Each structure stands twice: as structure tokens, then as C-alpha cells.
Amino acid sequence: MESAADLISRPLPTLLRFEGTTGTTEPSVSAERVSAELLRLWPNFFERVAEVLQSVDLSPQIDSIDAVEREFFSVGSELGLAGRVAQNLCIPVAKALAAAHLPNFRLGDAQAIGHTQGLPDVIGFLSRDVSLGQDEPLLVLAMELKTDWTFPLGSLPVTLPIDRRRSLERHVGQIVMYMRLNDLRYSVLSTYQSTVFIRRVSDYRFELSLPVKRGATGPSVRECLLALCVMAASDTSYVEDPDFNPMRLRQSAFPFLQASTRPSACRITQEPASSTPISPTNITSQTILFGEGDVSYGYVNCTRFIKGKSGVKATFEVDYEGQKAIAKCWSKDLYESYGIETAVYEKLQEMHPEGYDVFASILAHGNIICSSLFPSGYILLLTTKEGEQVSQIWDQLENVDKNRIGDQCRRAVSFLRRIPVYSGDAGKHNLLYSVSSKTMTMLDFEAVGVPTPAEVAILDASELYMIFGEVVMREPMIGG
Q1: CA nearest 8: which of 83, 93, 91, 99?
Q2: CA-CA distance, 358 to 335, in Å (whole number)?
Q3: Model-level pTM?
Q4: Are strands 388-389 and 448-449 parallel, antiparallel or unpaired?
Q5: DSSP structure class, residue 129
Q6: Chain mean position to CA 304
Q7: Cα separation, 122 vs 145, whole angstroms
Q8: Which tens digits make up the pLDDT trace of 419-438?
Q9: Domains and CATH numbers, the chain
């Protein structure tokens, strides 16, 4: 037996993971993004944790559940990580809450209660209590998990300069999406090795604690989570103002999106192939017809599904006018993502019609008119580029290839700054590299923003940090 205070004061056990194993190789992110300009330090977080711990009776004795601080379960994926967070963080905190006479506060997965919007990895909720007039469980807290080997949360405190904070935008954007869907004030973003606690202060201000390390004490991660649970139990929701505009969360809206790609527009980089009628013999079950409004101007025949989910967002290898191409498709709900990426490629083409060696080139885009593969939405056609996903081959590459990738990434960033935009989802997972031709291609510009004037001149920020981590390759690499 031990006191609840002793249980939650201990650090989390060391995570057991073997380097070089396969599993999760890129962070999962949503299409949402919160501008780094809206992320601020939670100034008195640790003082507030201490106050809450003092106000709660943690003296009751409970069964010791981890007297031996050692892990025996290895992880290599986000799914495995979720199990260790539940075992080593959530269960001890839940037991301490029950001992502290807060038994109606529960921690569970997103489906533990029936009305959770979205799929956060962990939720905190107040169980049904008829005596308090609460007829159903009340969701008050959300937690999102990432693997630390794909997202270095611990090296990204919110106090960094804005160009470095850009690396937080997509990940915080995902947890903020859950907060908004469920009207929450509090949330948690964790890699197990580091954990950040978040509160929403106003419609356009989110305060983040400094990262709390796995091995921290005074306070420990468990103590911080317990304190946040107590805060959430007494301040259960955040209601946005009636005139709230979610577009402002991205802050730096893409300046020429509206003018460049209206929902009904079909801009083709050459004369439409369908100025003559499309032959029925060319239409198969693998065909996607596209055009403007309800009028088809072109079509592709899909030869290979690459990734995604039909009807939502998917990427195909296609045949377009006798050449191999890449088709990216979005549902109507994802028009903004389609419009932004299309606008980036159009601007790149406008600046350099001959194309770039570090980007694909735009071929066509428009409304999806008819397709059994992707019934409705929008399509963007790009030239194919050879290479493998860098996140899959990085550890096997020679240093000369790694340096070449770094140099070519800098060139790609310099072109983006001329628009000017930055890529909010830069990473090895969005790079292709061909060992044979020694060429690199940067992909995926759905999540771009407009940099501040100071950022335009800093080519290492923020994409280079997102791709290569804490040590940006300013000097040639001499080690792995």
C-alpha cells in the first residue's frame, strides 16, 4: 500500500523501444492547423498545479501498481504507445482521483461515452450523476498522442521564436479540433517522453505549458495530469463567441486562394483535351471525369491506388492524355485543402513555367463530374516524380545523399518563400528521393501559411527543422 500522493509523484517508467524497428514512421496529423502566432505560454502552469495538489486530499492509501519502475512491453507504434500511456499514466491518475474523493471523474478512450466528437486518443469525463442533475456523462478533457521518434515535442517549447513554433501548428491544430468539436477548455498533447498541457483562454488564444519530461518530478507528469483533471472538472467547457471565424485560427490565410481556385473553376495548363467529345470507348470503371460545373473537359483512367480513402481524400496513379500522372482527389468538404494546394502549384508554375526539379508540375484541376472511384469533389493532376519516401529510406542513405537532400530542401524552401508561403506539413514523409538520379521532390502543400517578413529570409525555418529535427544541416553530415 502507498498513498495516492506517493503514487502520482513518481516519474513514468522508461519506454521500451528498439531503435531501427519498423512501425509508426510518420506522425499522424489532421488537416487542421492553428497558427503559431496564437500559441502562447501558460505563464503560471506549475504554480497552478501546486495549488490544485494542495487542495486535494491525496493521503488515502491505495494499492501500489508499479513498485518496480521498469517496462516489459516494447512499443513501435502509436497504438502501442496508447497502451503504455493508459497503463503508466491514466490508470495511476484515475486511481488517485478516486482516492481523493473525485470518483466520478473518469479517463477512457474516445468511445467510452457515446457522444464524443472526433477520435482523440484519451478523454476525461464526468460520469453520470443524477444527484447533480447530470443525466449523461460530460466530456471535459481530450488527449492526443504522438510517437516521440516522429514528433520531437520535448524540443519544441512554445517559448521558441515563431519560425520554430511552426512545427507545432498541425499537431496542436488536431487537438484544438477536438476541443472545438466538444466545447472543451483543456487538452493534453503527449509523446509519453514529453507532455504539454493546453488551455483555451479565448477564441484566438491557446496557452501551452512547457514540455513536462517523462522523468520529471516536482511536479511529475502524473501530478500535472491529475491537476488538469481537477481544473477541467470545475471548468467544464469553452463556448465560442457567435461571430467566431475558424479561418482566423490559421491566421495567415492564403492571400490568393479565392481568386485562384473557385469551387467551379477548371484551370487546365493546356487546351482542354475534351474540346472534342470524349469517346465512350475510353471510359471505364476506373475513369474520373472532371471539368467545370457539370461540364466535363477532361478525364483520367486510374491505374493504381496509392493512398487515402475513397470519397474523402485519395491519391491515384493515372493515365492522362497518354502520360503517367498523379491524381489527388478531395471531397467537397475539403475544398480549402484542394484550393490551397492547387494555388501553390499554380503560383510555382507562374513564376517558372518550365517547372522545377524539386517540385512536381501541375497538369490540370477541376470538379469531379463522374466517377465510381471518387464520386464527387475536386481533382488535381500533377506530373509524376521518381523516388522513394525519404522517411522509409533515411537510415539506409549514405551521408552524401543526406547532404544532397538537405541542399535540395533549401532550394525548395527558397522557391516557396518567393510566393511567399511556408509548408506546415514538411517532413521526411513528404519528400521523395531517387538514389539513382540523385533528385529530391517536396510534396503536399495543403497546409501552407504566409510567413512573417522576418521568416521569409530564414530559409532554415521552419521546414528544415520539421524535416531534419533539432540539428539543421548547416554543415555537411559526418555521422548517421
Answers
A1: 93
A2: 25
A3: 0.80
A4: unpaired
A5: B
A6: 26
A7: 8
A8: 989 998 899 999 999 999 99
A9: 2-246 (no CATH), 257-383 (3.30.200.20), 388-468 (1.10.510.10)
